[in-house]
Design a protein that fits this description.
306 residues, alpha+beta, 9-stranded mixed β-sheet, 5-stranded mixed β-sheet
């Protein structure tokens, strides 16, 4: 006997402005209940300390959550200079205190920041969710176990100094996936010579969505209390895939793709992903491979509604 599915079919993406002091999963479960959705997931957790853009995927949109997880991100962070903590943020115990250079200027700081722009190597924090032997690193850290972590390549597209105060600075960061802002701030603090940790972190962009696209959980609660439908707040899954080119199919090519079969189309193109559309709109994501004077499209993620 099959188990009865809890919740209704809800498909699309909702961008939440995550508040402080709650987990990303906590917000996900709260919003999932408000929608009465059967299936939902987020696209990369924010620490409880952090706020800002948190895209949530429902139903068919969850098929593209990995693509969204792999997308570029942007943040605004506040760093406290002269103090290092065990977690790299204000939630951890202080492990080191050093005086902040009294003559630190914005010009000197720009020289330091320039070392962290572009392609860099970054050692992930022990208090990250990266897995080691099947367990997240933060579990080892809480047990007092230090695990060797190889440096990983990340790219800092933009690193802008917003303001320098006596022992604090605000920075804006645009970066590739896998960049740890806590580690970046710690490394900047070490380069200055006094150490640093994150006291505030706000994600301003993820998966192409910005804070202008985000809504508050309190707004959803108010709408439910007033008997309003929340479904109109959802955007289609392809809204998060704008980084990929668009390809329209018709006739037998469309039929074959919808049946999960690769198709060849005329014209050369570079290898990569492409958004597929048919006569009823978005049908999914395919990967393209050049083959002589043609291109082979291999379906990777298709939406059921097509």
């Amino acid at each position: 006997m099959s188990r009865r599915r809890k919740g209704r079919d809800v498909n699309g993406i909702l961008v939440i402005d995550k508040p402080m002091d709650v987990t990303s999963n906590g917000i996900l479960q709260q919003v999932k209940r408000l929608f009465g959705a059967a299936k939902a997931g987020h696209t990369g957790a924010l620490d409880p300390l952090a706020t800002g853009v948190l895209p949530l995927c429902f139903g068919e949109a969850t098929k593209f959550s990995q693509m969204m997880l792999d997308s570029d991100k942007a943040y605004i962070a506040t760093a406290k200079l002269g103090v290092r903590t065990e977690t790299g943020d204000s939630e951890g115990q202080i492990v080191d205190e050093r005086p902040v250079p009294s003559d630190l200027t914005t010009e000197q700081l720009e020289v330091v920041l320039d070392r962290f722009r572009g392609d860099i190597q970054q050692v992930p924090s022990m208090y990250s969710a990266l897995k080691h032997q099947g367990r997240p690193l933060y579990e080892y850290a809480r047990e007092g176990i230090e695990v060797e972590r190889p440096a990983r390549p990340v790219t800092i597209y933009e690193l802008t100094l917003i303001e320098l105060r006596d022992d604090e600075l605000d920075i804006a960061v645009s970066c590739t996936k896998g960049t740890y802002i806590r580690s970046l701030v710690e490394d900047i603090g070490e380069a200055i010579g006094c150490g640093a940790h994150v006291t505030a972190l706000r994600r301003t962009m993820a998966s192409g969505f910005t804070l202008t696209d985000a809504c508050q959980v309190t707004t959803l609660e108010q709408m439910r209390e007033q008997g309003e439908s929340l479904d109109g707040l959802l955007v289609a899954p392809d809204a998060a895939l704008s980084m990929f080119p668009e390809q329209t199919l018709e006739g037998q090519s469309l039929v074959s793709i919808l049946n999960g079969q690769p198709v060849r189309i005329p014209g050369q193109s570079e290898k990569g992903f492409v958004r597929l559309y048919g006569n009823k709109g978005f049908v999914g994501l395919a990967e393209k491979f050049p083959e002589g004077e043609a291109t082979k499209l291999v379906p990777r993620r298709l939406v059921k509604s097509s």
